[in-house]
Amino acid sequence: MKVSCGKLADCQNVEGSYYCTCSPGYELRSGGTNFTNASENTCQDVDECKQNPRICKGRSTCINTQGSYRCQCLPGFEPNPEDPKLCTDVDECSSGQHQCHQSTICTNTLGSYQCHCRPGWELIPGSVNGRNSTICKVTPFFTWPLPPGVHSQSLSRFFDKVNNLHKDFKPVAATNTIQNLIGAMDELLKAPGDVEDIALPVRHQVATQLLLGLEQSLRTLAESLPEGPFTYRSPSDTELSLMNQKPGNGNVTLGQSHARIHLDWATATGAGNSSTGTTVVGILSNPNMGKLLVNASLVLDPEKEEELQKAHEGPLRGARIQILSPVNSVFLTNNDTEKLASPVTFAFSHEGEIPGKRKEVICAFWKMDSNKSGHWDTTGCWKLGSRDNSTTCQCNHLSSFAILMAHYDIQDWKLELITKVGLSLSLVCLLLCILTFLLVRPIQSSRTTVHLHLCVCLFLGSAVFLAGIEKETPDGEAGPRCRLVAGLLHYCFLAAFCWMSLEGLVLYFLVVRVFQGQGLSTRWLCLIGYGVPLLIVAISAATASEGYVGETYCWLSKKHGFFWSFVGPLALIILCNAVIFVITVWRLTQKFSEINPDLKKLRKARVLTVTAIAQLFVLGCTWVFGLFLFEPYSSVLTYIFTILNCLQGLFLYVLLCLLNKKVGCQGRLWEELCLSPGVASPLTWHLGLAGEGRVPQVGLHGCWEQVLRVCLFHNWHQPQSDSGKGLCLRQGTWEGTWSGVKSSQAPLSPGAQAIGVWYVKARITPSQ
């Protein structure tokens, strides 16, 4: 018997019976599984896609069919031969299914592909990167024009070489171009030539342009390199390390002998760059770039500045810097590196330096100013740790970095107070010395002339020091005023030591050659005392005018040996004076041992020699300590020099004036001479002043006794006027004056009477 189950059903035989089931892919409308005849057949298609949405694996779509289903792959995918439910990516680039322009490179992506410019090429205007319509052209090599207003043959040659590299640039030769570019930079920096003669702000402007140009050029050239790492080290120890590859999801570490950098790929790529291209991470270490960045100012982070002021209990006036490491320029595919989402970690190798007082090893970067110059800055960078030859830093931005030794200039109010008060006292004492040497004629001699000019030089030098030693900006370039102050100080202090050496010559003629002439005339003394230092300063300024630029003060620079234009003559003068004084003391010893020595002259010479030696000792020792004044900071030596320098004027006043017996006698006379009309005083004629003298109102006999003693001391009884009258008393007769003295109530001392009698005789019988 033949049984019919109907459409879309199959008959299943069993022992003694049968049953009907729907064909695979179908089911009864009731949901049952078996039925017995065609009239019960309600088989209908099963929607497998709806029953099991995940029946097809990823990258495919389930499509229901009568009695079955099929998995249709998404565009860019194809069925896996081993598993029809699985779709795999189609590599359009390798299979030739892409439609990229020949100027681009096909990059396969998951389910698609991208068209990118070849290395060393760039999009033409109007084209969009990543599509079939992408069209590229060769990227022109970055060109550097010579900065306007800069005249330098060395820079001109460098920019000519760079422009030639631009003309001959081909992406396939990017490696050679990089090496030639670094070679040209090394040649410029190894022997800067006239670049070092450029004014400091312009030189820093040139350095800023070179650093920016290197970053842009190397970024462009790196994109033309094959994927992978690249390292180059020039003969001048300039080292380039870079990585050009597809970015990952983790971190990237790039290192070389001078520096290491650690950052994440997202920071290196940047938000505006396609994640399907390659990303460049590079670092260039240049040990010679620091030559163009010397004497640059340092701007500290406000928090750091406040910390220093609290630590040193004084305001921060500035800081001098010493570059310890090569200048390291970092460049990425990401151009927006002024504010990074995550900080970048650096490890720099540098010279071993032990920080002293007011010194610190810091991490700094080169920041461009608004005028396209630059300065060192620490904002956004902080030091994680430092060892002998290595320092680790973190920064939230990228630029050109270096490890610096900062010498902080903290304002010392105690030292400033000592300097101002002490130098003011010294100026007063020096002025008193000058007036004494000019007005007190009994002490005037060739040696007094030397003392006068010595005090004048010290007075001018101290006044200039007090008024202008400070720079306008302690960490900036010295202006014309500061250079002028440095030149004046150089001249005044050299002149002071020259006059001190002339005192040694005067003593030599006085003691050693006492019977061979009068020694040097005033004209020759002035010619030597002022001419020799003028010649030294003129030669120094003509050969190296930049030497009059101190690091912190308006003083001489220690660079290139310029400081020896002061230290050399100073040491020579001290040495020569010491030799002269040894000879002088030796000859004095010989003369004292003679049978009939002229004791009066010898004692005078001995006093003068001892005075000169003491003067040399004080002035010489002062400037021995003064050599350390302009160090970054030597507190003890600085205080010693300041105190000694401030006491120079007082010392000279005591030694040359107060301890001089002639000055003391004249001073007592000025004190005793009171003012009363009637009689001319010998003091007025002694000073060369016109007018009538005055007779004292108190201590008549003491005052007149002193007057007579002064007259006798100066031999003023000699009749040298046309009228034959004595010079001691010009108005009234001597007899009347002497009679007035004798008729005073106070008795005269025997000495005064003897002097008076002697003067009367001298008046009656004048000398011929």
Kindly describe this structure:
Helix 9 (446-468) packs antiparallel against helix 10 (480-511), helix 9 (446-468) runs parallel beside helix 11 and helix 13 (599-626) packs antiparallel against helix 14. This protein is α+β, with helices and mostly antiparallel strands. It is elongated, with a radius of gyration of 49 Å.
What's the CATH architecture of the largest domain? Answer: Sandwich
What's the CATH topology label of the largest domain? Chondroitinase Ac, Chain A, domain 3
Determine the N-to-C terminus distance.
190 Å
Strand content: 15-25%
Number of helical stretches of at least 4 residues: 19
DSSP E strands, number: 27
GO cellular component, one term: plasma membrane
Protein name: Adhesion G protein-coupled receptor E5
Domain G-protein coupled receptors family 2 profile: 415-660
Subcellular location: Cell membrane; Secreted, Extracellular space, Extracellular matrix
Please give a handful of descriptors for the protein shown.
single chain; 768 residues; alpha+beta; Laminin; Chondroitinase Ac, Chain A, domain 3; nine-stranded mixed sheet; five-stranded antiparallel sheet; 19 helices; 27 strands; 20% strand; disordered C terminus
Topology of helices and strands:
Blueprint: E1 9-14, E2 17-22, E3 26-28, E4 34-35, E5 43-45, H1 48-51, E6 60-65, E7 68-73, E8 77-80, E9 83-89, H2 92-95, E10 104-109, E11 112-117, E12 121-123, E13 136-138, H3 153-167, H4 174-190, H5 200-222, E14 228-233, E15 239-245, E16 251-255, E17 259-264, H6 265-269, E18 279-286, E19 298-299, H7 302-312, E20 316-323, E21 327-332, E22 344-349, E23 359-368, E24 374-377, E25 381-386, E26 390-395, E27 400-410, H8 413-439, H9 446-468, H10 480-511, H11 522-543, H12 564-592, H13 599-626, H14 635-658, H15 661-672, H16 682-686, H17 700-713, H18 734-742, H19 750-764
Parallel strand pairs: 19-24
Antiparallel strand pairs: 1-2, 2-4, 3-5, 6-7, 8-9, 10-11, 12-13, 14-15, 15-18, 16-17, 17-22, 18-21, 20-27, 21-27, 22-26, 23-24, 23-27, 25-26
